[in-house]
Amino acid sequence: MKKTGNRICGFRKKTLCLAVVTALAISPFSVLSGCGSAETSTAVSNTTSSGLSQTASSEILDDSLLDDSHVTYVDVQETPGIDEFVEKLSAVEGLSDVHKDEFGFVTGYIEQPLDWQTDTGKTFKQQFSIDFKGADLPVCYSVGGYSLMTSMSDYSLFPEDYAHNAVRIEYRFFGESRPEGLDNDSVDMWEYLTVENAAEDIHSLISKISTVLTGKRVMTGASKGGFTTNYQAYKYPEDADLFIPFCAPLCDSASDTRMYDFLNYSVGDDVIGTEKAAEARGAILDFQVECMRYKNDLKSLYKASAIELNTEGENGYRSHLLEDDGAKLYDTAVADLPGCVWSSLGNYPEYATADQLISYFGDIVAMPVSTDEEVSAKKEAILNALSAFCSPGGYACSDDTNMLPYIIQSLMQMGNYEIDLTPLRERIAEEQAKDPSFPDLSFTVEEEKTAYITAFLTDEQIELGSQFSFVHDELVEWEKTTNANVLMVFGGVDPWTSVAIPECDNPSVKRILVKSSDVYEMIGHSASVSTFDEESMNTIYDALNELK
Question: How confident is the model over 292-344, as pLDDT tens digits?
Fold first, then answer.
């Protein structure tokens, strides 16, 4: 298995590895952002995972969590006509290095200007990948919003018998689509990482590919990809016949308070009832308190796990969270836990119901600590559970991952949430009243609000971000009047739903809120379409069938 930050990619030669998307945590630390997906990902090049399948392998952790039992390997079959397709696509002006890769995809590059608004004289190559099935079949453009390695594909969006071409587009400044000379520690060229430039990139590529793939088009993406899908429908409604954004956030600023209001006080209320939801939120909070109780013993192990999960070692990391003894890194994960948990629901049968979730955390909290052996067992259980939902590698983040450009773009235009740990701080104060030595959080109330910025950006980069305007108001107005065919999908307990674009009465924009299914009592940020309730699933499939 190849470990990449907070994700696992597994592959075998000449095979296509498909894995069900697992928890895409809500945090810019642990997800890419992350940020999550209502789709299935291609493990060979873009599988994501929570720590439930990739947990740090310190001695205290359970190495069995690193196995690949969740991955199914499927033989790749050569598609008839693919060689002719490669030849035709290679002849399109502006495309280069178009070829079949070892996994059966057609991969290539398009040369894009560094800035579409001004002539900088600089360009970069943007990567794309195509699962070709037939030139006249429907085409799904998957705009994950990140690198191809970590972007979600469209595989569970379509019924198994729905033949279509799948095109994945790498976002500018991510993965291999980075301008030459881009420096993670400077501000030079980062001002060109705008949603306007990205929309022009995507439109340009679609225009060129559409000269060869002539079928009707659908565009989809999840989380940041969902935001990207909405923005593309706003700027270029002609790019697709149908837009399906999953779990798309629309924050009103870089410090949107709505998400933590939702997480702290109301998530789950309208899905499992206020009483059961409060019990579930309480169980997670009780576990957070236990994490803090044993913080001094576990923080260094969590930090060591973060370093181990990145092959570049400690010097390769971007995050300032590694600069102390691991306290801030550990506290960030503890603070982020509620969002990671709720966003993951709808993926794991062992947490299919609220009662199962409550029991999972409650059992750890209730573990006895009468002997040294029992204390050690409880510490191990706490660290395993914390690392399962909040993988250490995602909070440390090395230079070659998606974190830095995502955070910069959030600060510039997309927005993000403000952290509010009031319930946890109140519980810590109660514990400290009984025992003054009870560990405290390592950042102040003010520091916690924008912890994701201070963890990854320089002061100059923060200043650069403040010079731009957020696109929230533009998209709110667009939704009211657009003629684009848009089907928005949200999870009932997904924290990002709390900052979704507001509902409106535009008949062109349909909205699905998936609360539960036959298997799962709650649906979060990263569930597969195949886990949706029948009505929601059929709504999506009916819209797709109209493209045939």
Answer: 999 999 999 999 888 877 655 444 556 677 778 999 999 999 999 999 999 99
Q: Which amino acid is at 244?
A: I
**CATH number of 82-253+474-515+529-545, picked from 1.10.3720.10, 2.60.40.2470, 3.40.50.1820, 3.90.45.10:** 3.40.50.1820
pTM of the model: 0.86
Whether residue 431 contacts residue 60, with contact meaning beta carbons closer than 8 Å, is answered with no
Rounded to an integer, the average pLDDT of 525-544 is: 85
What does the alpha-carbon distance between residue 494 and residue 149 come to, in Å, rounded to a whole number?
24
Give the pLDDT of residue 289: 98
Interatomic CA distance for residues 9 and 17, integer angstroms:
9
No. of helices (H) and no. of strands (E), the chain: 19, 14
Residue type, 460: E
Helix (H, G, I), strand (E, B) or coil at 107: strand
> Using an 8 Å Cβ cutoff, are 147 and 405 in contact?
no
| Rounded Cα gap, residues 266 and 140, in angstroms | 36
Q: What is the dihedral of CA 54, 58, 60, 62, to 10 degrees?
A: 30
Which pLDDT band, with edges at 50, 70 and 90, does 543 fall under? Answer: very high
Token pair of 223, please? 């989380």
Distance, in Å, from the CA atom of 288 to the CA atom of 514, rounded to the nearest integer, reads 28
DSSP type of residue 484: S
Alpha-helical (H) ranges within 400-519 are 403-409, 422-434, 445-449, 451-456, 459-465, 472-481
Q: Residue 418 gets which letter from DSSP?
A: P
What is the Cα–Cα distance from 341 to 268, expressed in whole angstroms?
A: 12
Return the structure tokens found at 262: 């939702």
> Is-contact 301 392, C-beta < 8 A?
no
In the chain, where does the domain assigned CATH 3.40.50.1820 lie? 82-253+474-515+529-545
Residue count (the chain): 548
CA separation for the pair 232, 177 (Å, rounded)? 19
